[in-house]
Design brief:
Layout: E1 6-17, E2 23-31, E3 37-43, E4 50-56, H1 58-69, H2 73-76
Antiparallel strand pairs: 1-2, 2-3, 3-4
Length: 80
């Protein structure tokens, strides 16, 4: 099995940080020298190790953005 190659082309920001120092980040990442995709996952501080995440094509980013724009705090409350 070959090594996984990746390049963080652009960093958009950190959306959370765990107690162990891992940061949940939104980045534009090229995997195995392919066209970069929007990527959301946890990274160690040196960006050498990563945990499972999600990669999105542009059409998926647009759909997610539309869905998120409709979410407000009230809609996130769960009734018991």
């Amino acid at each position: 099995m070959s090594d996984l190659k990746f390049q963080i082309v652009k960093s958009f920001g950190v959306i959370g940080q765990g107690q162990e120092g891992w940061r949940k980040e939104v980045n534009l990442v090229s995997w195995n020298e392919r066209k970069p995709k929007l990527d959301i996952r946890e990274w160690d501080g040196a960006h050498e190790k990563m945990r499972k995440g999600i990669t999105l094509h542009l059409s998926e980013v647009k759909a997610l953005k539309s869905i998120i724009s409709e979410i407000n705090e009230e809609s996130l409350k769960i009734e018991a």
